[in-house]
Each structure stands twice: as structure tokens, then as C-alpha cells.
Request: fold
Amino acid sequence: VVAGLSVADLQELYELREAIEPLPTRLAVPNVGRAELLSMRKQLDIMDSQVDARVWLSANAAFHAAVYRQANRPRMIELVEQLRCQTDRYMYIHLETIGQTEHLSVEHRDILAAVERGDAALAADLTREHLATSHDFILTYLLKEQSEVNGSGGRSSFPSST
Reply:
């Protein structure tokens, strides 16, 4: 059973991600080496050249995982991955329906630059901001859609998950 897109679920998932993901970023940055930086650049190139949302989402996951894995916190990384998988359907909406994704490339490049400089605190802050920006775009869209559906007396296309 696939749960509907829910404002409450979106908020909970992104609040968790915004709270958790900066930590493995901060822990990992001192351990990031050349191989991870090359992988991040490769994933950026894929994201910048992709119009297929599924390929983009895969490259995005690999970009962030290249850093997170270096935190050497397997349970934390497993939790991050679970949360990311649950938010991919929301990100798909951001990529395919909402658009306005230019910020994603800029944010990824800023995160990469902080990681390259070894600035763990900045990379962690940028990771949280990156998640918060996507959260805001998607939340604004869902609230607008719900308002339009509720205003027309129709049935909401974004039922709450049970």
C-alpha cells in the first residue's frame, strides 16, 4: 500500500532529516578523501545533466552518501537512508511538478566546496539549509494543492497516511 502525500508526513520526515543529517556530515568531513570528492563531483555532473527524476534522485543519494559513509556511524547512516527513501516521493514532486530546482545545484556545489575545504561546521549547516529549502518548496506546493482541493469542495488528492 502506498501512502498518500501528506503535509504532516512531509513535515515530520524533513524535520527528522534536518535534525539528523547535519551530524553525519559534520562527523564525516574530516575523513573525506579524494575518492569521495571525485564521486561527489561525478554525481553533481549527473544531476546537472539529468532530466529524468529517478536518475537525479539516485545521483543525489550517492552525492550525500559519499560524505555520510565517512562518518563511520552505520546505524546513523541506515536511519538517514531510510528517511531519504521516504522523502524521495516528495522530491520527485519537486523535480517533476514544482520545478524551480535551480537552487539544488547551487546548494550541492556549496556543500561540495565546504567539504573540499574541510569545513565540517559549514558543510553541516549547508546540509541542513539544503534540506530546509526543499522542505519549504514541497510544503508550499502541498498546502496550495490542498487549499485548491478543499476550496472547490472536491476530495483531497493528498490523503493523510494512516
Q: What stands out?
A: Helices lie at 7-20, 22-28, 34-49, 53-68, 74-98, 102-117, 120-151.
